[in-house]
Amino acid sequence: MACLSAMVQLELPHVNILSKMDLVTNKKDLEEFLDPEPTFLLSELNQRMGPQYAKLNKALIELVNNYSMVSFIPLDLRKEKSIQYVLAQIDNCIQYGEDADVKVKDFDPQDDE
């Protein structure tokens, strides 16, 4: 909810990074939280909270589902591919390099004539 709130309030490109993945022993347990399924989140909330919060839980899940932009990218500092993937996602989000000129000499063979 904090990520969604920041995304809506700031109206800026936003990347959610789940850091400290190098400390997690069983990464499969976190897979369901990286790109959360709304029905799974609703069942988890309903199990952990009292029945008086069922309507609030449903409203929160509908909010997350309507934006469908809340996902997390795992960052493991011990793996270079993980760092490269996070950097690529950030570059894509801020459209880094979009304004760079294309060098024609890199794509067109030169005429020897």
Automatic annotation (TrEMBL):
It holds the Pfam family ATP_bind_1. Keywords: GTP-binding, Hydrolase, Nucleotide-binding. Binds to RNA polymerase II (RNAPII). This is GPN-loop GTPase 3. Belongs to the GPN-loop GTPase family. Small GTPase required for proper nuclear import of RNA polymerase II and III (RNAPII and RNAPIII). May act at an RNAP assembly step prior to nuclear import. GO terms for molecular function: GTP binding; GTPase activity. SUPFAM superfamilies: P-loop containing nucleoside triphosphate hydrolases. It comes from Cajanus cajan.
